[in-house]
Amino acid sequence: MTDTPQVLLAHHLKALKLPSFLRDYDKLARQCAAEAVDHAGYLLRLAELELIERERRMVERRIREARFPAVKSLDSFDFLALPSLNKALVLELARSEYVLRRENVIAVGNSGTGKTHVVLGLGLAACQKGLSVAFTTAAALVHELTEARDEKRLLRLQRQLAAIRLLVIDELGYVPFSQTGAELLFEVFSQRYERGSTIVTSNLPFDEWTHVFGSERLTGALLDRLTHHVHIVEMNGESYRLKQSKRRQRADRAAAPPEGPPAD
């Protein structure tokens, strides 16, 4: 019978979905007793632990739902490797206020300069701020839209995409689209115009986007919407991956044993 209150309390806390209360209430009670903390202070500490744990789980859920190919933060980005990058702008964007203002970001530059890493960091920061995020490549999104159209579920997918606070579209420009694919992607941008924020990365300057969409009219209309409220992150420079490869090759040559004298 002495365990009945604890059993009932555990049952109620599970029903109320308060796992931190259940895990910590006894240990925290002893700690507060030792520190002469009153019952209100005890409940405050317990509630704070629950809120911290709940926020942690919500961030983890948002990160899973974003479908990032990798979880990367801006803390691990080597800004010194790309001196031309406006670091102050990137760190300002990491505050995610542009998402609240429904503004867009375009990261443009040659391949290998870290565009994907930067936008992954911005996406992670938005998740941590409590915002819904989705990550995809341009080619994968066009494929998904085309498949949804063929299966008569395009309207539902479009609504889902329009409801996301931050949509990250990577690698625009690597693969040209069919007319249908270009029109479907344009519709996504059009539906999100001034309703949600979109991040795009591209290895092409704007005047070459026509090669991707196959139509000057469509490209012009898309850029008009995308760049109306936009932050441009220019990331031109030597490929970071190429630079790392050269560094490894130099290190390997330095570590290699010297060649012996030629055989007689």
UniProtKB/TrEMBL annotation:
<comment type="similarity">
    <text>Belongs to the IS21/IS1162 putative ATP-binding protein family.</text>
</comment>
<keyword id="KW-0067">ATP-binding</keyword>
<dbReference type="Pfam" id="PF01695">
    <property type="entry name" value="IstB_IS21"/>
</dbReference>
<keyword id="KW-0547">Nucleotide-binding</keyword>
<dbReference type="GO" id="GO:0006260">
    <property type="term" value="P:DNA replication"/>
</dbReference>
<dbReference type="InterPro" id="IPR002611">
    <property type="entry name" value="IstB_ATP-bd"/>
</dbReference>
<feature type="region of interest" description="Disordered">
    <location>
        <begin position="242"/>
        <end position="264"/>
    </location>
</feature>
<dbReference type="GO" id="GO:0005524">
    <property type="term" value="F:ATP binding"/>
</dbReference>
<dbReference type="InterPro" id="IPR027417">
    <property type="entry name" value="P-loop_NTPase"/>
</dbReference>
<feature type="domain" description="AAA+ ATPase">
    <location>
        <begin position="101"/>
        <end position="236"/>
    </location>
</feature>
<dbReference type="InterPro" id="IPR047661">
    <property type="entry name" value="IstB"/>
</dbReference>
<dbReference type="InterPro" id="IPR028350">
    <property type="entry name" value="DNAC/IstB-like"/>
</dbReference>
<dbReference type="InterPro" id="IPR003593">
    <property type="entry name" value="AAA+_ATPase"/>
</dbReference>
<protein>
    <submittedName>
        <fullName>Mobile element protein</fullName>
    </submittedName>
</protein>
